[in-house]
Structures are given as structure tokens and as C-alpha cells.
Amino acid sequence: MKKQDKVKQINVIARAPFKLYFQGTALSLSATNAIGKFDVLPGHADFFSMLEPGEVYIEPVEGEPVVFNVSNGIVTVRSDEVMLFANM
Amino acid sequence: MRRASLIEKDAESISTLKDLTNVFESLASTQVAKMKGKVLESQDFFGLLWERYTSLRIDPKRRITNRDGVGNNGRNAIILISAEAGLSGDLDARVIETMQNENDLSKTDIVVLGSHGASQLSQRGLTYSRFFKLPESDDFIDVSPVIKAVLPYERIRVYYEEYVSLGSQIVKSIDLVSRIQDMSHEYEEGTMTDYDTIFEPSLEEIAEQMEETMMRIALSQTILQSALAQAASRFNAMTMAEDRAGELLGEFKLEFHRAKRSESDRRLREVLVGIKKKRREAAAGA
Lengths: 88, 286
What we know:
The complex is a heterodimer of chains A (88) and B (286). Chain A is mainly beta. Chain A has one domain: ATP Synthase, domain 1 (Sandwich). Chain A has strands at 10-16, 19-32, 37-40, 47-51, 54-60, 66-70, 73-78, 81-86. In chain A, strands 1, 2, 3, 4, 5, 6, 7 and 8 form an 8-stranded mixed beta sheet that branches. With 286 residues, chain B is of the alpha/beta class. Chain B has helices at residues 4-54, 91-102, 115-123, 144-150, 203-285, and strands at residues 76-81, 108-113, 130-132, 156-165, 168-175, 198-200. The longest helix of chain B has 83 residues, at 203-285. The two termini of chain B are 42 Å apart. Chain B is elongated and about 130 Å long. At the A-B interface, β1, β4 and β7 of A face α1, β6 and α5 of B.
């Protein structure tokens, strides 16, 4: 019997002080920092970045993509746990 | 004794006042419920962010902070958060008293947020160096101008009101300055250093920006807390005012009935005197 590959995923919490944009498992998260656009995929190295104004795109494991704009914020990645703090 | 018509007029005014306090009480109650949710959401957000912020570790030798060179002639700064208007009981007065008791105000510059606090300070003969109006919206609290004003000070203390319950609000203070923790000799689990984490921009730049961001968020939190405490205090003040208006209304009603009876007794006496007089005149004529 063929061993079924487990879908790799990241756990994401994306929120502003009074708004939760997304909380759950996702396949990827894309945002913009001073260097440019970047993607966080499963297995990404530990990462800490300040966000630039722009669009954040989250592709959940299930359901429609979540898209929202941020004026500032930070994103942290640690062992596939992604936290995005927006509009602080 | 006052005339019944005058008492009735006063009672009508008190009745209107009672209705108004009732409306204010309902408004304050709605505001408390709304603010409570916001404070909890914001605390949750701040908690998560704080966890990430405190996990940052940098080498003390390379520590850069935008607060280097602070001092401002050895003076400290106090941020006093008050209400924008009155009707919130004695809460602002209590904050000012606590601030006075805990600080040497001759070595302190006061930055006041809220018109009520500013007027209370002036009434007490206390001068403040800067005044800011409270943010109009709770959804986005921009405290950047306040942070900019206090950033040159080494010690920045915030005095504000905290909601404990609907019946209890306390005065609190926090030290706004919190520096990035130095890299510890022993590696702690959960910390983020530039040996194991990619930082964009550099860790030093992030540390510098985060320090101000955390100060901004911490101050926003105290403003929200304060607004919640003030709404609760306003609710209490309005409840007390409504109770007092109810008592006054009862007293006025009693006084009104006494005055009415007294007035009807007087009229009766006048009629009786008139009848007696008529009888005497009739008897004299007969």
C-alpha cells in the first residue's frame, strides 16, 4: 500500500488589536517587508520581520483565501507557527 | 411652608433630572459592555505580541535603542490619563492625588490626556507641560504624538484608572519604559537570536522599532483601561444621582401633600371665619 504523504501546513494567527483576520492551518502566507514580497511556506526558517504597508494573502488548508491590507505590523515564524500582528 | 405649586414645580424638575440620570446610566452601562470586550481583545493581542517581543535577544554590546542619550536634565515624565469630560465621579481626582503622593513634582513634567484632568490640575495649581485630547475613536488609538513628547525622558510613568468591577475602579501606574532583554548567558528555550532566526530588517533595527511600538501599544492599553473604568465610574455616579433624585422626589411629594393640606385647611378656616362673621352680622341686624 502506498504511503500517503501528509500535507505540510503552517499554523497561522493573523490579527489586529480589535480584529482577528485568520486563525487556523494554512498552506502559505504572503506579505511585504522592506526587502519586498515574501512567502512563508511549511518548513520556513524561524523568521521575524517588520511589515510594510500592503496586502496580506493567506491560503488556508480549507476554504477561500483570506486577503486583507495592513498599514504596519510584524510577522514571526517559529517552528511552523506563524503570528502576524497588524495595524499596531 | 412653601407653596404647593412651587413644590410641584421643583418636583417636576427633579423628575426630569431622574429621567436624565436614568438615560445616562443606561448609556454608561452600554459603554461598559462595549469597552469591556475591546479591553479583553486588546489584552489578548498585547499578550501575544509581548510574548514575541520578550523572546528577542540581542548582544548587549550591540544593543541599539532609540532612547540612547535620554535624560532631559534628569527630569521624569508622567502621563496622566483622565476623562475628556466630567460626570465620572471622583476618579480623576483620585488619580491626581495618587500621582502627587508618589512623585516629586518639582522634578517631573506632566503630560495630561483628557480635558477633565487638565482642568483638575489647574484647579489644584499644578502645571502640566503638554496636553493632548483623548482619541475620539476606540478602534484606532494614535498615541504617536504622546510617545514623541515623552521619548526624551528616561523615566516615563503612566497614571490611569483600571476597571476591577462595575462597583470598583482603582488607580494604577506603570513604567512605560521597557528595554529589550539582554542576551542571557544561558540559552533559554523560546528565545529568538540572530544565530537561529532570520531578521528583516536587522535584529538591532527591529529592537529599536519594537521598543517604541511596545510603548505605543502599552499606552493605548492604559487609555482603553481608563475609558472602561471611567464608564463604570460614570455608571455608578449616575446610579447614585438617580437614587438621590428618587429620594428627593419622595420628600417633595410628602412636602407637596402637607402644603396642599395646609392650604386647604387655611381656606377652610377662612370660610369658617367668613361664615361666623356673616352669622354675627345677621344676628346684629335682627
